[in-house]
Write a structure and sequence with these properties.
disordered N terminus; four-stranded mixed sheet; alpha+beta; 6 helices
Length: 185
């Protein structure tokens, strides 16, 4: 089994290529503050399973624990280790298109409730871009962000998110100048 390691708050959408996406309860390690995702049903040219491990922050770990309790109150099958964290009522994986449509419907309803100017119109996949953009803008190295996104290369991340980094050049130049002059960065 091939395994990749990622760090920071997790985005597990892309350990490619896969047929079934998702994280089973057994992949959530609250002690280590990490989550492991295995893609099942790989194409012939790839290993039978690809495993990705992403570190989590304490707030996400707590939210996952609360979610498990809530699901267990609906059905014990949803709290089993073999159930998916975001599962259908039988504990299996949710259909991605249906899940995305429900997300869009929730955004539309929320925008109507709070005012359309208050909340931007976003798709589920936009959360992935927001995750990457915020990390890059905070100065997290491209390599780390690339690993978290499951990109095969940092070049993919750079090509997609280069627009986030122009202001970082000025900061890098200032820090380099301070280092050369013997000052603190």
């Amino acid at each position: 089994m091939e395994e990749t390691r990622k760090s920071g708050t997790g985005d597990l959408e892309e350990c490619k290529p896969e047929k079934k996406r998702g994280v089973r309860r057994e992949g959530v390690n609250e002690e280590k503050k990490e989550i492991r995702k295995r893609d099942e049903g790989q194409e012939k040219t790839f290993a039978a399973e690809i495993s990705c491990t992403v570190d989590l922050d304490p707030g996400t770990v707590a939210a996952l624990g609360s979610h498990k309790v809530s699901q267990g109150m609906v059905s014990l099958a949803l709290a089993r280790d073999t159930a998916y964290v975001l599962s259908n009522l039988e504990g299996g994986p949710r259909h991605p298109e249906r899940f995305s449509r429900r997300f869009v419907a929730a955004v539309v309803a929320t925008r109507e409730a709070v005012g359309e100017d208050t909340l931007s119109k976003i798709r589920l996949h936009d959360l992935r871009h927001t995750h990457a953009t915020l990390l890059l803008a905070a100065g997290i190295p491209v390599k780390v962000v690339s690993e978290r996104l499951g990109h095969a290369s940092s070049m993919i991340t750079l090509g997609t998110y280069a627009h986030v980094m122009p202001g970082m050049q000025a900061e890098a130049a200032a820090k380099y100048g301070a280092l050369l002059s013997g000052g603190d960065s």
